[in-house]
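Q: Please design a sequence for this.
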């Protein structure tokens, strides 16, 4: 077994995953298949036909994502909720060993960062890109060529947030102006997010 004795350590850990779309769904799949047994997923969306090029479970158009995934991955705890200030003020992050952020809402992302940056790994922009080999795991303050990451940095600067945390990001420049995603990149973001989470949990 690749994890050896660390596998039993992994089995005791609690993971909180925000967002189960193109990135988060593949992250969930990798964590689950590796043996993480306590995973809570938070998302408000339902599946749309436009999700089918990249999202696990998206053949169930119209279904709530977290409930659909809870059926596909028995034992996962689903929370169907909009991640806004009201939710974040009431939510208890303390029980979780790691928090994974795979959502694309800037305000929600900033709220999560402010509350639990010490045990957070956050995914930056995976859309409009084609080359998964450009993916990196670095400090938010060292990201570049990513308009979404720049927006996050700018918003953090506005609130004078100077603390550090790691992100999954791609140095590839956007390949189109319109909306568009390639599962080879979004999936690779999710798998990298899972790998780095496991590394931290058993390290």
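A: Design:
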């Amino acid at each position: 077994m690749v994890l050896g004795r660390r596998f039993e350590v992994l089995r005791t850990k609690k993971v909180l995953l925000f967002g189960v779309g193109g990135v988060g769904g593949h992250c969930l799949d990798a964590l689950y298949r590796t043996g993480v047994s306590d995973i809570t997923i938070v998302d408000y969306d339902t599946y749309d036909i436009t999700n089918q090029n990249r999202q696990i479970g998206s053949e169930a158009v119209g279904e709530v994502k977290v409930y659909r995934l809870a059926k596909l991955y028995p034992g996962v705890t689903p929370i169907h909720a909009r991640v806004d200030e009201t939710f974040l003020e009431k939510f208890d992050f303390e029980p979780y060993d790691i928090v994974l952020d795979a959502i694309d809402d800037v305000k929600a992302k900033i709220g999560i960062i402010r509350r639990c940056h010490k045990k957070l790994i956050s995914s930056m922009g995976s859309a409009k890109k084609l080359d998964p080999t450009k993916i990196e795991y670095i400090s938010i303050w060292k990201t570049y060529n990513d308009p979404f990451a720049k927006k996050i940095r700018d918003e953090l600067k506005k609130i004078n947030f100077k603390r550090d945390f790691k992100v999954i990001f791609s140095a590839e420049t956007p390949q189109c102006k319109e909306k568009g995603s390639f599962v080879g990149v979004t999936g690779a973001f999710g798998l990298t997010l899972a790998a780095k989470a496991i590394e931290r949990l058993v390290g």
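Q: Thanks. Anything notable?
A: The radius of gyration is 16 Å. Strands lie at 14-18, 38-43, 77-80, 98-101, 120-123, 135-139, 166-170.
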